[in-house]
Write a structure and sequence with these properties.
seven-stranded parallel β-sheet; ketoreductase activity; 10 helices; binds NADP nicotinamide-adenine-dinucleotide phosphate
């Protein structure tokens, strides 16, 4: 019997389209309907602690506020002791929880700091670790021109801190067969960002690490999640006004904590893109035009940001001279 090639092509096309539409419907269902794992599973309101790196500003500070509201005690880490202290006092008074702080510069990668943190955490039941701390290139810069210090700082702050903090909390989590590790990822780990090469590659590292660790820990009671983040209003993003695609930290973190264990727009194992606008953007990247197209978009965006940043520097230098 002769096969009708047109009918065959139409059938394959329809199946392909149906597959894509089903994928998009699954994303919408995840983002708008499904609930995530209840944080009580990780000890919320039962004396457990959440450890947050980079907790004095932006997304990390918001994690501190929302995890306090859920009843976790907090260990907050970042460079500025005074900012940490203010947050600790505010959250202790507001939620009646315990808050400890530790001021350190992750860029130094000082073993003494990690030792002190290990000692502090020894007596605490750590239910949640949020590997949030991050730093970036000052402005988009070609790798050939980037300073060794910026490169080293990104590796220490964005990669090594997550590895070391995870290594510190994991034994007790595995021992108790309970825990949650959230790693703050970026779309620049999903689609390479030229001119932010080290930041972008560092976030890809975190993504792959989270996937590998997540598989290793399956069935141990410890949940690992790589949080795929597009832009959020913060001092790092240098974006001040929210849009439907760029939320404030508050709705962003709320979406993360409400969707633990739910993929949202993420297609990778142990990944989650929980915020609605980000989830749709993640779906579009994975399903439309191909990765080369999206890298080219990133290239154009970063070149434009660099042009504007250099102009701003020139203006500031001129103003200083006047
Ligand atoms: N905002 C976005 O659009 C966006 C997008 C994708 C991914 N992310 C990721 O989300 C995470 C948080 O970003 P954010 O936008 O909230 O950043 P942010 O507003 O710049 O806050 C960074 C936090 O980390 C602390 N910190 C910075 N460098 C540190 C260091 N060397 N040692 C110790 N603490 C340090 C800062 O406090 P101190 O200055 O007091 O130390 C602050 O609390 C990062 O991992 C970032 O890559 C953000």
């Amino acid at each position: 019997m002769a096969v009708d090639s047109k009918a065959l092509l139409a059938g394959v096309g329809t199946l392909y389209l149906a597959f894509k539409v089903l994928g998009l419907l699954r994303v919408l269902f995840d983002v708008y309907v499904r609930s995530g794992i209840n944080l009580k599973k990780f000890g919320a309101g039962q004396g457990a602690w959440a450890v947050i790196t980079g907790a004095s500003d932006g997304i990390g500070k918001e994690f501190a506020q929302q995890l306090a509201q859920k009843g976790f005690n907090l260990l907050l880490v970042s460079r500025t002791a005074s900012k940490l202290q203010t947050i600790a006092e505010e959250l202790t008074a507001k939620h009646g929880i315990e808050v400890e702080t530790y001021a350190m510069d992750f860029a130094k990668g000082d073993p003494e700091d990690y030792l002190k943190l290990a000692t502090m955490m020894q007596e605490l039941q750590i239910g949640v670790l949020v590997n949030n701390v991050g730093t970036n290139h000052d402005i988009p810069t070609a790798f050939v021109d980037e300073s060794d210090k910026v490169i080293q700082d990104i590796i220490e702050v964005n990669i090594n801190s997550a590895l070391r903090m995870t290594k510190l909390v994991l034994p007790q989590m595995v021992g108790r067969r309970n825990g949650l590790i959230l790693n703050l990822g970026s779309f620049s780990g999903l689609v390479a960002a030229p001119y932010l090469s080290v930041y972008s590659a560092g976030k890809a590292f975190l993504s792959t690490f989270s996937q590998a660790l997540g598989h290793e820990l399956e069935g141990t009671g410890v949940v690992v999640e790589h949080i795929n983040t597009y832009f959020v209003v913060s001092s790092m993003s240098k974006i001040r006004r929210p849009t439907w695609l760029i939320p404030m930290p508050k709705p962003y973190v709320k979406s993360v904590l409400n969707k633990i264990g739910v993929s949202g727009g993420a297609a990778i194992p142990f990944g989650s893109t929980p915020y609605s606008g980000h989830a749709l953007a993640n779906w579009a990247i994975d399903n439309l035009f191909g990765i080369k197209f999206w890298v080219k978009q990133n290239l154009a965006i970063q070149k434009d940001i660099r042009r504007r940043a250099l102009r701003k520097r020139e203006r500031e230098a001129a103003a200083k001279r006047d």
